[in-house]
Write a structure and sequence with these properties.
Layout (H helix, E strand, L loop, with lengths): L2 E5 L2 E4 L4 E8 L4 E10 L6 E6 L5 E3 L7 E6 L4 E6 L8 E13 L2 E8 L3 E6 L1
Parallel strand pairs: 2-11
Antiparallel strand pairs: 1-3, 3-8, 4-5, 4-9, 5-6, 7-8, 9-10, 9-11
Length: about 120
């Protein structure tokens, strides 16, 4: 069974740091494009950071210079390093990834979502 499992969330004071991990399990060939999203109570889910298969990054304006997305294909894991955290960063953070599979001589890919991890930043 293929799934994305996030970890690393928690409670941190403003100005602190956290590193979120998103591990892909199952018979995966590689991770293509991936990204982190977040959803605060009463708000829409929004893109935080994205990483293309070619290594291009894209960040929401509200995290530029503070957050960094990275990927370790050897470990099938995506990371989000979050520094200088603010109370407004409080949300459930979700990983989204385009996973590539190899089966019977063919490659194919499919997007998956993780279950989310809570990040709470106290003032």
């Amino acid at each position: 069974q293929v799934q994305l499992v996030e970890s690393g969330g928690g409670l941190v004071q403003a100005g602190g740091s956290l590193r979120l991990s998103c591990a892909a399990s199952g018979r995966i060939h590689t991770i293509n494009a991936c990204g982190w999203y977040r959803q605060a109570p009463g708000k829409e889910r929004e893109l935080v950071a994205a990483l293309s298969s070619g290594g291009m990054t894209n960040y929401a304006d509200f995290v530029k210079g503070r957050f960094a997305i990275s990927r370790d294909n050897a470990k099938n894991t995506v990371y989000l390093q979050m520094n200088s955290l603010k109370p407004e960063d409080t949300a459930v953070y979700y990983c989204n990834a385009d996973l590539q599979f190899y089966d019977g001589g063919y490659y194919y890919s499919k997007y998956y979502w993780g279950q989310g991890t809570q990040v709470t930043v106290s003032s």
